[in-house]
Amino acid sequence: MTQTVLIFSDNLPDDQTARLAERYQLADFSGYEDPSAAPGFGDALAGADGAIGVHMRWAAETIDQAARLKVLSSVSVGVDNYDVAALSRRGIALGHTPGVLTDTTADTAMALILSTARRVVELAEWVRAGQWTAPVGRDQFGVNVHHKRLGIVGMGRIGQAIARRAVFGFGMEVVYHNRSRKPGAEDEIGMHYVEFDELLANSDFVCAVVPGTDDTRHMFDETAFERMAPHAIFINIARGSVVDENALVAALDAGGIRAAGLDVFQDEPVGPGHALVGRNDVVALPHIGSATFETRHDMARLAVDNLIAGLQGEQMPACYNAADLDR
Ligand code: NAP
User: What CA–CA distances, in Å, run from 50 to 6, 53, 245, 310?
Assistant: First the structure.
């Protein structure tokens, strides 16, 4: 019998959807902002052998309704939208897309570092508004990026890619904090490990690159921002949940830190009424870390590879919960 695959997001390019259509019956909910609220979604969920997409929350109740599901393939590296324990209990393999988005996301982090330090967005808007009527002066000056100290929290694939760019491209000094030490990367990149509090207190830029988990929730809270220097710039390329946004607003208002560059927010999307949007000391991006044509295509292809391998009972190229399923 032909297996059924549920598509729950818009992010699949046509050639990757075609690979699925050749093999499976498709229940395609890609046109919906919230597929789970679409007519017929419940039946499709109940009948799906596999599912692929991103941006939909899969809580335990949703997973319970997916009675036949064997493989869930996320077009993302972060898996914070999924109840991984519930998936593993049911023996459902969770695919994700590590590696293929590493460099693109690291590029976005550098864009945030540069644009906050040099006030790129604010001053481009200033020109557009016709305010460039004389040579710039102190009111428009930014601060240097090169040769400053960057503290990276989360030294995984993306953290290391940011560190390489910072050290080899901008002559920055990199310190890092991570759950485990990375001696190989320390030697290769020339960076050193410090405790979290020391990183906060002694970095010119603090960049969050940890996954959004229960452990990292509000890792950057009032205390963390108080430890940072008044000239420090905070960058979040990870997940909105790692930051207490009220504490960040308070730190910026009080001059406790200089600026923030944010690709991610607690509740996305955010609009102009959000307290961190519309202020000159914040560069707010719409979660574009991996959003290039090339990288989104590579992510979709890996997610489809994961799904096909999983549904064929083969080892997936990138299975997030493989260790749990082997037990
Ligand atoms: P990764 O290779 O798994 O790296 C994550 C790192 O965080 C690991 O080194 C891990 O430590 C560390 N870590 C986990 N929990 C920690 C904690 N409580 N304290 C300190 N360090 C901790 O993942 P990645 O590919 O670099 O991606 C990292 C995250 O970036 C993803 O999970 C995702 O949420 C986010 N991301 C965002 C975008 C975007 O569009 N903005 C794009 C891609 C990814 P160990 O080495 O000890 O395991």
Answer: 6, 11, 36, 9
Catalytic residues, by residue number, are 239, 268, 287
Residue nearest to atom 16 of ligand 1 (CA): 179
Q: Which residues line ligand 1 (CB under 6 A)?
A: 77-78, 98, 101-102, 105, 154-159, 178-180, 209-212, 215-216, 237-239, 263-264, 287, 289-290
Average pLDDT over residues 192-198: 98
102-284 topology per CATH: Rossmann fold (3.40.50)
Name which of 324, 252, 284 is nearest 122 in CA terms.
284
46: three-class secondary structure by DSSP: helix
Residues comprising the chain, all counted: 327
22 phi, psi to nearest 5 deg = -65, -30
Ligand 1 centre to CA of 179 (Å) is 10
Local structure of residue 256 (DSSP, 8 states): S
Every domain of the chain with CATH number 3.40.50.720 lies at 4-98+293-325, 102-284
Amino acid at 170: F
pLDDT at position 10 is 85
- For 119-160, the pLDDT digits (tens) are 999 999 999 999 999 999 999 999 999 999 999 999 999 999
**CATH architecture of the domain formed by 4-98+293-325:** 3-Layer(aba) Sandwich (3.40)
Is 326 or 57 the better-scoring residue by pLDDT?
Answer: 57
pLDDT tens for 159-178 read 999 999 999 999 999 999 99
